[in-house]
From TrEMBL:
Domain of life: Bacteria
Signal peptide limits: none
Protein name per its UniProtKB record: Flavodoxin domain-containing protein
tRNA processing among keywords: no
Keywords: Flavoprotein
Span of domain Flavodoxin-like: 3-144
Length: 151
C-alpha cells in the first residue's frame, strides 16, 4: 500500500513528526513524505492512503507551509471521493479554543471534497512533556492501514 505523508509546518516540528511516522510505517508500506508547500494537489490519488501532519499558528490558523495546499483545495475543488486519510495534528493548549485547529482545518477541507477521515485524530500538545516524535511514532504504530482502507 502506498502511504503519502503530507506535513504542514511553520518551524519544522510537524516535519519531524512526519519523519517519525514514515519510519514507523516504512517496514510494511511504500511511504513518501512531502512538504505541503511543494505538493501538487493533482497528485492526490484516491488509491493511496494519506497521513496529514499539520501544526497550528496565528489564532487557530494554518501554518504558512500548509497554506498553498489549503488554497489549492479551495481553488480547484478536486473530487476526492474514496480518498482515505488520517490526521496527526500539532498545537498547544495554551492557545485555548484554537487548540490544534490546523489539522482540523485540513481535515475539513478534504472531507468537503469527498474524502474520508479514518483512525484516531491525534492532537499533540506542546505544553506537555510528551515528545512529539515519540507520540507520532506510537500513533503510527496503532494505524492498521489495510483495515482502515477497507472499512
Ligand atoms: C506564534 C504562535 C502561534 C500559535 N498558535 C497556536 C494556536 O492558535 N493553536 C494551537 O493549538 N497551537 C498554536 N501554536 C503552537 C504550535 O502549533 C506548536 O508549537 C507546534 O508544535 C508547532 O509546530 P511546527 O513547528 O511544525 O509549526 C502556536 C505557536 C506559535 C509560536
Amino acid at each position: 500500500m502506498r502511504v503519502v505523508i503530507l506535513f504542514g509546518t511553520e518551524m519544522g516540528t510537524a516535519e519531524s513528526a512526519a519523519d517519525s511516522i514514515a519510519a514507523e510505517l516504512s517496514g510494511a508500506h511504500d511511504v513518501s513524505v512531502h512538504d505541503m508547500t511543494d505538493f501538487d494537489i493533482e497528485d492526490l490519488d484516491v488509491r493511496d492512503f494519506h497521513v496529514i501532519v499539520c501544526s497550528t499558528y496565528g489564532d487557530g490558523d494554518l501554518p504558512t507551509g500548509a497554506e498553498p495546499f489549503a488554497d489549492a483545495l479551495d481553488r480547484h475543488a478536486p473530487e476526492l471521493t474514496g480518498l482515505r486519510f488520517a490526521v496527526f495534528g500539532l498545537g498547544d493548549t495554551v492557545y485555548g479554543d484554537t487548540f490544534n485547529r490546523g489539522g482540523e482545518i485540513i481535515a475539513e477541507k478534504l472531507i468537503a471534497r469527498g474524502a474520508t477521515q479514518v483512525g484516531e485524530h491525534a492532537r499533540h500538545d506542546a505544553s506537555t512533556e510528551v515528545r512529539v516524535k515519540h507520540m507520532a511514532q506510537q500513533w503510527a504504530a496503532t494505524l492498521d492501514i489495510p483495515a482502515l482502507v477497507s472499512a
